[in-house]
Design a protein that fits this description.
Layout (H helix, E strand, L loop, with lengths): L12 H4 L2 E5 L2 E4 L17 H13 L13
Antiparallel strand pairs: 1-2
Length: 72
């Protein structure tokens, strides 16, 4: 059996996107990269995980009342 890799543990969404504030405009992930598929993706982050953390960090850098908007 392969050794347990923290990044492949399924977490609630709210825990998966947790960030720590480095300075006024910089945030860093405190969740291990989530790489579905076990050993093949070990040490690599799933793109959706990274995208969501970036969007969540961006939401923390604007004044209250502003929303994340993606145009087509």
């Amino acid at each position: 059996m392969a050794p347990f890799y923290e990044g492949n543990r399924y977490l609630p969404f709210v825990d998966l996107i947790k960030l720590e504030k480095v300075d006024e405009r910089t945030y860093r992930s405190i969740a291990w990269p989530f790489s579905p598929g076990g050993e093949v993706g070990q040490g690599r982050a799933y793109g959706g995980h990274v995208y969501m953390q970036a969007a969540w960090a961006a939401c923390h850098t604007v004044a209250p009342g502003f929303l994340l908007h993606v145009s087509r």
